[in-house]
Amino acid sequence: MNSDKKLTARRLLIFLAVAFVPFYIIIPVMWAYFGEPIFASENETVMIATSVVGVFGMMIPSFANLITRLVTKEGFGSSYLGLNCKGKMGYYIASVLVPLGYSVLSVLVMWALYMGGMSFSDAFEPLGMQNTGLFLMQLAFSVIVFFPAFGEEWGWRGYMMPKLMELMPKPAAVIAGGVIWGLWHAPLTVAGHNFGVDYPGYPFVGIGLMCVMCTVLNAFLTLITEKTKSVYPAAFCHAVNNNLGFGVLFSGLGTEKAQEKMTEMSGVSTILPYIAILGAVGIASFVLLVRDKDKKEAARQKEAA
Q1: How many domains does the chain have?
Q2: Total-model pTM
């Protein structure tokens, strides 16, 4: 490993240490204090505490980015903080439409698979003015969710992924980055975030599924970040994904009868269609990333000839 790669590896390790340590300390301490898996709790005080931890916790990767740049005197070149909109607006639009698309499709697949023959009208509320208004309000709320989403994205896509792609081939970097991102969530997953605690194989199945989800989503987020050389499209996508994901859409549009049906199933079972559809998006993004690399390599070889 040459000196440049050694420095990159050192910076990456410092970044990961700063990014990982807080959750791996805070979550067990809170669990011990409240005496229960905090993200599966129905206690109002615990729920408020976990909301605060969740919002501020999403800022940790950006904090790790900032600390690493300062400690290692890296500076803020190639920081991915420019908008770079010119000629790239398609990626900004995709950052909103793609997560909306796979979330809506996931809800429809869930209805087809899990509603036991329930008609569409029995499963979903009519899309009248009230539900349309609620949907638009939730979409507008994504502007607020953007800030914690940016907190993750400036860390993962704005720092970790460029470093990984310096150290290894792009396909390997996407997989490694997704697994790292998934493991960062592990304390939250163990404490009941996303899947609860009542499912077969808890908590290892949940941690594994989180790594899979993060890997396939990482492919799309890395694609739009690299195409724009900006972290903002990924932050928009992350915000919409979290704020208008399939669970939020189903809660807002599903009838009481349909929601009761879903609560009878484990969190892991209900999320499988979402993972499969998100996986298709990830595979397509992965192919585009590799193809882009091959085109650049062919262009370099042509110039050298």
Answers
A1: 1
A2: 0.92
